[in-house]
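Request: Mind sharing a record?
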Amino acid sequence: MANPENKQLNVKPSAENLAAAAKAAGKKGPPPVHLWNPPFCGDLDMEIRRDGTWFYLGTPIGRHALVKLFSSIIRRDGDDYFLVTPVEKVGIRVVDAPFFAVDAEVTGNGADQTITFTTNVEDRVTAGPDHPIRVVRDPETGEPSPYVLIRRNLEALIDRKTFYRLIDIGGHEDRDGTRWFGLWSGGTFFPVIPSAELA
């Protein structure tokens, strides 16, 4: 992620500048980070842990408003994550996914069901063709890691309590000759696990 020709940023001023630029850019709605092409300025000592906690200089960021502000300017290019403003692009570390889905509201039943997720930074999306759910299973333990697409190529890891609550309303459907257990939302069936593998 780092450019070897760039030195480590003077992180404190840069973090402050990023926050100010994000605030200014977001005054008229979500910042259009996908349209900006500023120069890469190096890596910032900032990390998003698997549980959605943001760390800066090894310390959790305690101000939710600041986390929400930074989350509005995240962009993913390939496998790397950046905070982007019109004039600056800095790399950050993301352990798993940049967002964490902490709740879900369910309406309807079966194929008419909708699942609306809320993230740790208060994004709300309804799963469907534009916001698919996917589940990755650990090849050794079989433990599922469920995700929902929040915006563009940025996903949220769905927290355990929410996922297991959703599993209670799952159902079985045939897809390409295989019977799957999964979830309906927004007119789309999202496979979770082959039915034959359920205990």
User: Anything to note?
Assistant: The two ends are 41 Å apart (CA to CA). The first strand starts at residue 40 and ends at 48.
